[in-house]
Amino acid sequence: MVSLFLIENDLDFAVCLTRIFEAEGFDVRWSETIEKAIPDIEESSPVAAVVDLHDGTSQELSHLSRLTDLEDKFPILVTAHYQTPDIACKALGIGAT
Fold first, then answer.
1. How many CB atoms are located within 10 Å of the residue 92 CB?
2. pLDDT single digits (tens) 32-81
3. Domain limits of the chain?
4. For the chain, how many helices (H) and strands (E)?
5. b (16+ CB within 10 A) / e for 40-56
6. N or C: where does the chain have the smaller number of CB atoms within 10 Å of the terminal CB?
7. CATH of segment(s) 2-94
8. CA distances from 96 to 35, 70, 87 (A)
């Protein structure tokens, strides 16, 4: 199976997304924060990551930047949840998709 990493702090939504991606043939790994996910991502080398930015703080964007700098490059799809489009634009500027 193809590995996909999901970063989402809402457990119910994470379960829903996991079911959808698994139905499409992905092996989904999940974490509630980018910071917690980075060691697992380095080990598992996913083909893509789906990241829901929770609050768009500078710390969260810094962790996203670390994610985009990992040696094994892969697409990172960012959703801004209920945040302003400005947060999504900052994520794009860091290198997210």
1. 11
2. 988 888 888 888 888 888 888 776 667 777 878 888 887 677 888 887 76
3. 2-94
4. 4, 4
5. ebeeeebebbbbbbbeb
6. N
7. 3.40.50.2300
8. 16, 12, 12
